[in-house]
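Colleagues,

For the teaching module next term, I've prepared a clean inverse folding example: a structure given as tokens, and then the sequence designed for it. I'd like students to try predicting residues themselves before seeing the answer, so please don't circulate the second half yet.
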């Protein structure tokens, strides 16, 4: 069963923050290829797809009763594959159904290969005939050297989840209703009761990796002829919209009369999943690779002269589908004036704590989460604490300390590695390599180690080589009465008005990756024009 929504976000969101202005191919350790590697991987005895064959962390009990394969495409490029199995299992004498989806995706960023391996497993009661009754789940996502593992169990009206990243395990508890489904709730609902033309349906379940509850609205159209690898077939077209509490992600799926999803498409970004044979799924692609950095750039007509000197800039933003409402964040460094349903003027300002703000600082002071250690920002790590002392041991002024930490990050991370998508602060402190996400999590951890509230901001930054805006992550630290931007990728002690902020986050919770969902909202549907720059 293809992941109707999940794969799109799980593949793209951790990789999208790749817009560091120094994003150039790295010599030495970086592996560069003319195309993504899809089939150069060993399949272990259980069929879980992994480059190293390591699957011992996962419960392999049960007898496989169903199996199918899918091929993944992004804007016409073959980028990955997946194997799904359904097995009969038992725990303490209770019959269960175990469903597992294991996938491997290979993209490029700035010419460097990024490999992501994802395994999603759930156990549900066998007597529910496709209904909810989630018992427990496991998920593992590996991108580059980093691995995030989550395990959850339903207990006393709650889903209790433990998420482990290198060096830290964090727990969370989600209120859980009996009617909620697990990782594959949409697919299980369709297979248990195939939809009919013009039918509407709503299902709620767990969104993996993000570890949050989401509701999907399904609206069936009619049967139509769809091209598949095995030939044409009459399939039911269904529009799917996942609501994640303000973030809506739309896709289209096609099912056969059994309710099996044979094709899915996310039009905004051109991602397609197609049911196929194992041999076809594992075949090597033909032609060049898909570079996510280049494909995700939002072009700016006329370009932007000397972006590093900008103190104030006004951009006209327009979305080609949906509404502009809620896309851009507002605060002391950015204001938004809505023009109509699809467009707005976004004013970006350089902010310093010592200068009067053009607008009154908003009343959004930091929370405890902006000072606390978490799975991605391990500010209590002894190595990070020692780094913070080394970088800023001669001043007690919060702003001077923050600037010293920013400069320390900029000069310490010398290896600009794009092969990993979202390493933790502890990993970065050890490897001293990465892209803008690695700079941001390390700077946030160092600031919190010095008792300065810090969070990450993500959005778009002007990227001169592509004459447009690329996805980027930077920081904001709380100084006096305002959040002040800093950027460890440049270490200048000031951030120019060369970026558009989509959202910010403390990256707390079982998976801080959920906070990056707004990034997907502008992928492939945003247009920008420069109205004013000075």
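(Answer key — instructors only)
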């Amino acid at each position: 069963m293809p992941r109707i929504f999940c794969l799109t976000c799980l593949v793209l969101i951790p990789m999208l923050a790749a817009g560091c202005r120094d994003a150039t191919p790295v010599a030495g350790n970086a592996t560069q290829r003319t195309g993504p590697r899809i089939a150069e991987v060993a399949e272990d005895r259980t069929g879980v797809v992994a480059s190293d064959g390591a699957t011992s962390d996962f419960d392999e009990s049960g007898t496989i009763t169903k199996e199918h394969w899918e091929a993944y495409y992004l804007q016409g490029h073959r980028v990955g594959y997946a194997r799904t199995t359904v097995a009969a299992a038992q725990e303490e004498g209770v019959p269960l159904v175990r469903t597992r989806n294991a996938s491997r995706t290979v993209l490029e960023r700035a010419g460097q290969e990024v490999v992501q391996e994802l395994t999603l497993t759930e156990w549900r009661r066998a007597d529910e005939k496709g209904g909810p009754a989630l018992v427990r789940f496991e998920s593992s996502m590996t991108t580059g050297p980093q691995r995030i593992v989550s395990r959850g169990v339903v207990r006393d009206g709650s889903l209790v989840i433990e998420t482990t990243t290198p060096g830290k395990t964090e727990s969370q508890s989600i209120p859980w209703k009996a009617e909620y489904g697990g990782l594959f709730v949409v697919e299980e609902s369709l297979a248990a009761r195939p939809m009919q033309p013009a039918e509407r349906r709503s299902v709620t379940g767990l969104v993996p990796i993000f570890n949050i509850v989401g509701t999907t609205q399904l609206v069936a159209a009619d049967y139509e002829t769809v091209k598949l690898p095995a030939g044409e077939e009459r399939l039911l077209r269904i529009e799917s919209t996942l609501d994640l509490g303000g973030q809506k992600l739309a896709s289209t799926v096609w099912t056969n009369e059994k309710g099996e999803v044979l094709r899915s498409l996310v039009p905004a970004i051109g991602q397609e999943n197609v049911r196929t044979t194992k041999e076809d799924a594992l075949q090597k692609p033909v032609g060049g690779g898909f570079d996510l950095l280049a494909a995700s750039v939002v072009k700016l007509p006329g370009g932007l002269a000397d972006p590093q000197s900008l103190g104030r800039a006004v951009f006209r933003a327009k979305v080609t589908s949906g509404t502009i409402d809620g896309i851009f964040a507002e605060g002391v460094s950015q204001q938004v004036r809505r023009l109509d349903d699809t467009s707005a003027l976004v004013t970006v300002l350089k902010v310093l704590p010592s200068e009067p703000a053009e607008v009154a600082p908003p009343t959004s002071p930091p929370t405890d989460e902006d000072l606390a250690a978490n799975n991605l920002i391990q500010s209590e790590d002894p190595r990070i604490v020692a780094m913070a002392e080394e970088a800023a041991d001669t001043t007690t002024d919060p702003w001077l300390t923050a600037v010293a930490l920013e400069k320390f990050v900029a000069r310490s991370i010398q290896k600009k590695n794009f092969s990993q998508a979202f390493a933790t602060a502890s990993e970065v402190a050890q490897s001293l390599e990465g892209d803008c996400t690695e700079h941001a999590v390390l700077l946030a951890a160092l600031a919190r180690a010095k008792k300065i509230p810090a969070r990450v901001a993500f959005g778009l930054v002007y990227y001169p080589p592509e004459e447009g805006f690329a996805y980027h992550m930077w920081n904001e630290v709380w100084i006096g009465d305002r959040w002040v931007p800093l950027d460890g990728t440049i270490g200048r002690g000031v951030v120019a008005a060369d970026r558009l902020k989509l959202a910010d986050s403390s990256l707390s919770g079982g998976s801080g990756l959920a906070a990056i969902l707004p990034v997907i909202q502008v992928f492939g549907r945003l247009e920008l024009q420069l109205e004013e720059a000075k």
